[in-house]
Amino acid sequence: MAQGDLSMFLGQLVRKPHQVVALAPSSGALCAEMAAQIDPDAGPLIELGAGTGTITRAILARGLPPQQLHSIEMNPDFCTRLRTEFPGIHVHEMSAGDIGTLPVDGCQAVVSGLPLLSMPLDLQRAILTGTIARAAPGASFTQFTYGPQPPVARALRDELNLSWRVSRKIWWNLPPARVYRFSWPG
Ligand SMILES: C[S@@+](CC[C@H](N)C(=O)[O-])C[C@H]1O[C@@H](n2cnc3c(N)ncnc32)[C@H](O)[C@@H]1O
Questions:
Q1: CATH number assigned to the domain comprising residue 142
Q2: Which domain holds residue 59?
Q3: pLDDT top residue among 18 and 147
Q4: CA nearest 152: which of 136, 133, 131, 173?
Q5: Per the structure, how many domains does the chain have?
Q6: Which residues neighbour 4 within 8 Å (Cβ) at sequence distance 6 or greater?
Q7: How far apart (Å, rounded) are the C-alpha atoms in residues 23 and 148?
Q8: Tens digit of pLDDT for each residue in 26-42?
Q9: N or C, where is the chain less crowded by C-beta within 10 Å?
Q10: Ligand 1 mean position, distance from CA 12 (Å)
């Protein structure tokens, strides 16, 4: 974690608890698992809820060219930090619910640090249908969760016919978490 990331994260957590919804930035172990299946040569990737950039850093460490990374974040202070820390990436200050409007096609994956399960069903639906619209065949939607259930509402999993694989539990994170990789037919 870069110097200052934790204090900035905690400051925003106090100001906007319903957006940040985490006790601390994701750990190095969790970020590495989130980024583990990224292929640097497989085309663009969209990150949702980039925050201070902990997952962003792990994505770039996989060798993805910065210009292939589109990071969506609605908090303007986090966006300023991302633009300074990661020159070359595309930082989109917008809601993840508008992912379907991004001018990016054929994404290899969408990697999400959003508090997805705490969002209303309609917002989850906009995020997932937008993801599918922007994704290449065979792409995945990667999302971590601290809880025991898959981190997409059951109604939406059924509606979109999602299937998934889940990682081992990552204990070195506050709190411990699992990573889900969702896929869909077609
Ligand atoms: C739990 S923090 C994750 C930060 C970082 N990715 C990590 O894992 O440490 C959630 C982030 O999602 C952002 N966020 C919440 N709702 C959002 C939305 N609708 N659109 C875009 N970003 C959102 C928050 O501002 C915050 O930066």
A1: 3.40.50.150
A2: 5-183
A3: 147
A4: 131
A5: 1
A6: none
A7: 18
A8: 999 999 999 999 999 99
A9: C
A10: 11
